[in-house]
Q: What sequence folds into this?
């Protein structure tokens, strides 16, 4: 009998934990939105974050996009060759990159590169009382730390997603033409034929949402840091894992709504 | 005047402040002494609204901090400066920018005026020439002096010090204590210091108060504390293992 009670106690514990987490997250988002109405955004801070999230990530986003596009072209070839539709490799690569892989890959890479940094930076500030110091100096940490990161991420993710998609398509083209020895003009022509503008802007809408999700979760987790360097390590891991899960979940929801 | 009235505060099941009452006189330095873990820092954070009490009132010039909104609280906090235990300097910017930070956030000054004010404060704390260093490059004592300079930059009415001499050697502790005395004379602020440095308290305090089991058990000047009949106070100021305070 006891093990049944233990079982329900555990379930109850996790349910309460989830409700508590969700409640805290909603309050956090509400505070961030309120800070936008109370103060005008700090442009210098926003610009710094845009450089950190965007400009500094160009190389890594381009590189990952390139390899994914190349692999996609190669994998598509093996399937397309069997049914004799190798001319469809171009649209396959382009649609996969713009609709799905560009935004998702970019979001996951930025989560790993910048989300972890946001969580650990704010977490370290929390445990070393720097956030308390901000508050005592009448500076709202949501306005000063969270909002510039969230807005910068929201702006830069679509730009990075476009870069990732373009370089991915380019990588696919290089493999198609030079490694597989197929006609490059067909690759480009078929993309023009089968791709719609909505494929691009729906992918960008996804990227905007992913940007908001990753920066919101990562900054939120930063404020939860406690217990020294181990605590910062723990919330950094949680920030990356949770952001990634939420991004993939949101990807499914957005895909079913947008496409 | 700052008054803490019937403050109760618990964290989970642990009662930290238990019906605490104390008032801080204007333009004087009050040192709160007590053992580690007695809730001294928690009390200090109530004064600036970083922590809200479970019950009771925190009054600043008759304004209850718990009844005002965030914007009003932020306006009120501009009258405060605070020196945190480890300085709480922003580690991503240099010393100059750390001290200039409150100026940039709240005043519209020219770069020249900001430069003059920052250099003047650095000079006051005896640290001219370190303005381009990063906080990580400084010793503990230097970081605390920079924190004092930052807390003073807006010339606040009230300055809170959270264990300003903890972790410092006796000479550096004396430097910090003298710095508190000299800046208080210069700016005439109301100083509230949390400390377990008894000698420092005797030197800097106009008023000493002892926090024990979440409440203030004795208030008075240094002389009163040196000759106190209260066995808890006597044990604490003597630094004795034996007595009513159970370790």
A:
């Amino acid at each position: 009998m006891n093990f049944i009670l233990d079982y329900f106690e555990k379930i109850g514990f996790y349910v309460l934990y989830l409700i508590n987490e969700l409640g805290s997250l909603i309050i956090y988002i509400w505070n961030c939105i309120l800070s936008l109405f109370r103060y005008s955004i700090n442009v210098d801070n926003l610009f710094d974050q845009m450089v950190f999230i965007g400009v500094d990530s160009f190389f890594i986003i381009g590189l990952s996009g390139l390899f994914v596009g190349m692999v996609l072209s190669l994998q598509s070839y093996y399937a397309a060759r069997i049914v004799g539709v190798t001319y469809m490799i171009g649209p396959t690569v382009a649609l996969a990159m713009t609709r799905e892989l560009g935004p998702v890959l970019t979001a996951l890479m930025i989560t790993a590169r910048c989300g972890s940094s946001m969580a650990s930076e704010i977490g370290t500030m929390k445990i070393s009382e720097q956030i308390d110091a901000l508050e005592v100096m009448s500076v709202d940490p949501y306005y000063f730390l969270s909002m510039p990161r969230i807005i910068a991420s929201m702006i830069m993710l679509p730009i990075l997603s476009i870069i990732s998609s373009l370089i991915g398509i380019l990588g696919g083209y290089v493999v198609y033409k030079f490694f597989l020895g197929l006609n490059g003009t067909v690759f480009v022509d078929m993309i023009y034929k089968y791709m719609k503008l909505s494929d691009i802007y729906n992918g960008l809408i996804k990227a905007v949402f992913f940007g908001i999700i990753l920066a919101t979760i990562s900054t939120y987790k930063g404020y939860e840091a406690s217990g020294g360097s181990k605590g910062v390590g723990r919330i950094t891991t949680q920030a990356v894992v949770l952001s990634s899960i939420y991004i993939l979940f949101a990807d499914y929801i957005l895909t079913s709504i947008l496409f | 005047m700052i008054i803490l009235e019937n403050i109760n505060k618990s964290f989970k099941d642990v009662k930290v402040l238990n019906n605490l009452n104390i008032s801080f006189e204007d333009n004087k330095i009050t040192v709160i002494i007590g053992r580690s873990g007695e809730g001294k820092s928690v009390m200090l954070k109530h004064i600036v609204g970083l922590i809200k009490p479970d019950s009771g009132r925190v009054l600043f010039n008759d304004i209850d901090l718990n009844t005002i909104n965030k914007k009003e609280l932020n306006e009120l906090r501009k009258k405060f400066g605070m020196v945190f235990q480890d300085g709480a300097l922003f580690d991503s910017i240099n010393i100059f920018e750390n001290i200039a930070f409150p100026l940039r956030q709240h005043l519209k000054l020219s770069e020249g005026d900001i430069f003059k004010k920052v250099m003047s404060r650095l000079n006051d704390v005896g640290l001219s020439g370190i303005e381009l260093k990063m906080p990580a490059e400084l010793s503990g004592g230097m970081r605390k002096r920079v924190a004092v300079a930052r807390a003073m930059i807006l010339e606040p009415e009230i300055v809170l010090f959270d264990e300003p001499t903890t972790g410092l050697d006796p000479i550096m502790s004396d430097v910090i204590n003298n710095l508190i005395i000299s800046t208080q004379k210069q700016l005439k602020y109301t100083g509230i210091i949390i400390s377990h440095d008894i000698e420092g308290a005797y030197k800097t305090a106009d008023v000493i108060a002892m926090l024990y089991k979440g409440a203030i058990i004795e208030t008075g000047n240094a002389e009163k504390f040196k000759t106190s009949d209260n066995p808890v106070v006597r044990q604490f100021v003597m630094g004795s293992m034996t007595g009513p305070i159970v370790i």
